[in-house]
Amino acid sequence: MENPGEPSIPARHESPDEGLSPPADYHELVEEKLLAHHQGSQDGGPQTGVTRSRASSFAPGSLKLERTVPEFERLTVIPPPDEQAQKDGIARSQAWLHTNFLAPHLSTEDQGEIMSEIQADHGSSPAPALTPELKELYSSLQRCLELRDKYMSVSLQRLGDDPRHYDSDNSGGVMPGDSDSNHPRLKPWKTYPPPPPPHWKFKPHNASAPEISHTQDGDVPFDFSSCEIPGDKYMSVSLQELGDDPRHYDGEAAGGAMPEGSSSNPPRFKPWKIYPPPPPPHWRLKPHNASAPEITHTQDGDVPFDFSSCEIPNGMPWEWKIDEKGIFQVYEDISVPDSRPLFDIPTIKDFFVDLDTVLNIVADGPTKSFAFRRLKYLSSKWQMYTLLNEYQELADMKRVPHRDFYNLRKVDTHVHHSSMMNQKHLLRFIKHKIKHYPDDKVIVRDGKELTLREVFESLNLTAYDLSIDTLDMHAHQEAFHRFDKFNLKYNPIGESRLREIFMKTDNYIQGRYLAELTQEVMADLEQSKYQNCEWRISIYGRSSAEWDKLAKWIVHNKLYSHNVRWLVQIPRLYDVYKANGTIGNFADLLHNIFVPLFEVTKDPSTHPELHVFLQRVVGIDCVDDESKPERRIYRKFPYPKDWNTPQNPPYSYWMYYMFANMASLNHWRQARGFNTFVFRPHSGEAGDTDHLAAAFLTAHSISHGILLRKVPALQYLFYLKQIGLAMSPLSNNALFLAYERNPLPEFFKIGLNVSLSTDDPLQFHFTKEPLLEEYSVAAHIYKLGQSGLAELARNSVIQSGFEMEAKRHWIGKKWYLPDAAGNDINKTNVPDKRLAFRHNTLMEELKLIYSNQDAPIAPRSSLTSQLDTSADTVAVQAMAMG
């Protein structure tokens, strides 16, 4: 029976860290040493026979921050030397001794003396050697992480790879072959028009910039003629180097030089101007009697740009072609015999070999058990943290002036453009058009033009008859696990012609109604100021002209907003297009999707509107119903030109070809100083969990990911790599998973990089501010505190594709740094200690995987300094000991 007067020592079979329990006579020995130590201190005499030994900080693997590119820091783990094991054993023993027994007033040296005598009597307690099973398990997890890093490096999706990520505060690396180390690789990205001074424009004192005329409310008009476009000269890009994005130079620090013409006479960097610029505070609140310059046509209060005065970059000599494997390859001179592509893109064979490696690892029994236990440990560790720090976090947040949940920057990282509004907004818009513009010719049927009045007369409806129930666009119970019925909800009143009239960009009225709806929603976002969106708009791949039509629709309708960026989504509808004869094989679809992008990268003058539109595009999505069954009709997948069957290619096949061609495109765009794209597909909403493995290798971040709850090993890998998850619990509740069963709160506790998004406000939300509605429901059902909501909002900004300049203003100048160093509580309202806990916990897990040691029991912090033994501190140390 355990003596209640003595500290409890965990039994070997109860502890996950076997071999770390103290010897049986540990307590008696410690009492002897304490008594001798106290006696010696009272007598004032030296303590003989004592060897001073300072225990090293517990660090199975030391960490190194590699600064390949200034301030963008990547974690690498250095394996410990062999002699580190003995030091680790001493440190672990000291940690156990202090936490369980030693008096709090003892200094570090005193503790070291006692530990030295104990070690002399009982020998060191080295860290236990790993079992062969654990060695193999750690090695397999390391292999998965390395594969993820390889694919992110190849596709230029990391922070710092996109030219938009450089704002002259981060000068980038050195141009290959440039002897001057002061020459950065890329010109600072300028988002045009620039943010209005002095609100949040960080401009170097010695930097010259073109004069910009501001309107009375401080906003800068959209004048395309002033747009800064990278020049003709391009840099030589190495695939292994960390990429640089000119868009992320914001003028906070003086820029370097862009190699253009002679390197001996380089031009100065100019801060990238966000276009249009974010307005100053209260920009929409103008006095009623204020005079303003007369504007003939405005877009949300901004002066529209003049496209005819726009300067477009010239072409460059590089060429491209599609190889026999379906990959768009870039060549310096395609006419040279045996010329090789400039960029090395993984082959489809490499991809499926790597995918099989990941799938085999995550399906391995010991790996699943290990990951499950670590995830449970992380969740429990978070509960301990909240119990100890909840009130302190609240006190820290109360000390922050002005900032609260309502004025935190939030980004809706997953919302489809065609359903961006709520039902009431759409109903009001339709009624307005029927009442005031009934004679608009809106559609052609059987060769006859029909007016809006005639369309509704054919439906036996008037404006008075319309209601929310009549529209019937909300996803109710009948859509649960019925994605086919959900797709029908995009048709107002169940009529596809109304969808064509009001919700399409390419129709008889050239998308005018949808453009007006978009402008109204943009105005609402700008009025709210703190809510931002990344709308996903479709390119189907039926024709290569789709890109130009979409870009012209965006540019000519002036659909630019400070609060909006775009993603392009590619629906996986090959089987539909093949059935109706639109395309002949999968290569035709890839041709229609990527040819315009490579053409505009080679020579922007061939697609000027597309070049302008792509500056606001941050990524590519691949979307469709994941629950559709995938039948393996080939033992070995054919290349796209040979995929001519009616069967839709599997998810992983789509993912590879979207990823590979985007990677090749990114390298070329980066070389020209144009912005690059990231891959952010839908994954893990339904269907096969193998989809998540393909996304793990290829995607920058994903939407949904709720099926990770079924694959603990893959969930653990997503945690270790901090892959973004844009989760939509209200959407999942209507389609696939009840709200209370959604894994979002558990993912959040574990420490996955999760954010809240709306998906389809038209189908799932009721209020004018659907993103706030999403936060509100989650806060109530999942009992999220104010600090939790603030952390989710911060995650959404980090996951988003907004320029570095915007992110600096929204969440802090050094937001990309780990730990509390990257946090500005005055902007994020997230307590520093919360982010420090998140980072320290992640580092402990990475050290566990890379150090080839068993799970540690010692606290992460150094034990050579005086340890606080207050109740809370001891509890935190116990928590860190696992």
Automatic annotation (TrEMBL):
Residues 1-65, 160-219 are annotated as: Disordered. Its EC number is 3.5.4.6. Gene3D superfamilies: 4.10.800.20, Metal-dependent hydrolases. Pathway: Purine metabolism; IMP biosynthesis via salvage pathway; IMP from AMP: step 1/1. One of its GO terms (molecular function) is AMP deaminase activity. Coiled coil: none annotated. It holds the Pfam family AMP_deaminase. This is AMP deaminase. It comes from Rhizoctonia solani. The lineage of its organism: Eukaryota, Fungi, Dikarya, Basidiomycota, Agaricomycotina.
